[in-house]
Amino acid sequence: MNELLWIGFAFLDLTLTLLLYRFFGRAGIYGVIVFNLLLCNIQVLKTVTLFGLTTTLGNILYAGVFLATDMLSEFYGRKEAQRGVLLGFTVVVLATLYMQIALLFSPAEGDFAQPHLSAIFGLLPRLAIASICAYLISQMHDVWAFEFWKKKTQGRFLWLRNNASTLVSQLLDSAVFCLIAFWGVFPVPVLLEIMFTTYLFKGVVALLDTPFMYIARKVHAGNPDSRW
């Protein structure tokens, strides 16, 4: 059951990315980056078993961010993609800060939300730092690599620059996050297993998004930015 839900969820997220781009243009892509980042940082707290492997649920939405930044790179250039990355980074940092401030307020008598909010948003600083560092490093590399392969292939082979940039960036993301968050916490073999399963499922979504990039290119040809 989990496997079918996971596959369906991946296609749902990638399809909604295209729909938001179709109706809102460039602003829709920025919206996808912010929306996916906020939710994946909550969903990542839940672990699930997929195909006999344990992984976090946030991998789908996080991988969808790479589709969004690749779309910005392809249609609007490197600077716009970097702007999208920095927008996502800023929102995640502010959301984390604001929720930490919210947790400092003493709850009213009879309040039921405080322990649940603390469980979700009272993240250890080490995990928060790991997530933010991994995001910024991997996304900046993704933008650079996408532009590199675009120039290298003279604008041809969209599938190559989409996958070559994303797959390496996903590896960077998994490595940076796991090393910062879990080094010294788990034995090295366990750390490597967590890193592998995290990268594996992100990589699968990265491969799934290739046809969605081609569809997005057709949508872009219709100048969606004029449809408001």
Strand and helix layout:
Elements: H1 2-24, H2 26-43, E1 47-50, E2 53-56, H3 59-76, H4 78-104, H5 114-121, H6 125-152, H7 158-182, H8 188-208, H9 210-221
Helix pairs in contact: 1-2, 1-3, 1-9, 2-3, 2-4, 3-4, 3-6, 3-8, 3-9, 4-5, 4-6, 6-7, 7-8, 7-9
Distance between the termini: 39 Å
- Describe the largest sheet: 2 strands, antiparallel
Structural class: mainly alpha
Total helices: the number is: 9
Q: Which overall shape is indicated by the principal axes computed on the Cα atoms?
A: globular
Total discrete domains: 1
* Annotation, overall tally of beta strands: 2
- Strand and helix order: HHEEHHHHHHH
The fraction of residues assigned to DSSP E strands is: under 5%
Uncertain segments? none
Strand order of the largest sheet: 1-2
Helix content: over 70%
Please name the defining characteristics of this protein.
228 residues, mainly alpha, two-stranded antiparallel sheet, 2 strands, 4% strand, transmembrane transporter activity, transmembrane, Probable queuosine precursor transporter, transport
Describe the 3D structure.
The chain has 228 residues and is mainly α. It has helices at 2-24, 26-43, 59-76, 78-104, 114-121, 125-152, 158-182, 188-208, 210-221, and strands at residues 47-50, 53-56. α2 (26-43) runs antiparallel to α3, α3 (59-76) packs antiparallel against α4 and α4 packs antiparallel against α6. The mean pLDDT is 87.
